[in-house]
Fold this protein.
Amino acid sequence: RTSLDRVWLKLERERELWPVIKHSNGGDERRNSVKFIGHGVSGAMCTVLLMLPEASATRYIVGANKGWTTNVNYTIWAKDKHFYNGDWLFFVYDRHQMNVLEVSKTDYETCSADHPLHNWTTGAGRDVAPLNVTRHHYFISGKGFCYGGMKLAIPVENLPSQPSSSPVKKEAPSLNSRNQILLFRVVSAIGEA
């Protein structure tokens, strides 16, 4: 979960804990307090959402809908993708037969699983490998499956740097889709209060 999701959940929990003060006229004070506080929170959230950068880590499902299996050309799967430091690879495979090993370039080329750099296999058949080092990463499946094509080589780059400020007039920041969804949730919650 992102930090914004955690903030949202915390606000939801706190809203439920606010005491309801019954008045003699039959109304309650919590509803008005929630609206008042909600408007302030929504204003602050909108400001934060507008300032967030659009770049974020990407989770790639290796092999897309085919997953981590034989008879898939992972070179073709990876060719149109840019992998950046901070991204994640998500391997989905038959946990009873296959595994996920990160190996050296030499072991990748020879399909040798004898000395892996890291064994990402957890036994669930759904394993995640973080791409947190800028270099070439090499993954194979041992037990002979590498010879059937279960191997992936990808370069991991640093995120492109933000362009330096220039005297050119800048446009106002736009809302990315994630921020639009969060903004909608905040506004909806205030409307319900």
Observations:
- Helices lie at 3-17, 29-51, 74-78, 105-110, 177-192.
- The longest helix spans residues 29-51.
- Residues 46-54, 169-177 have pLDDT under 50 and may be disordered.
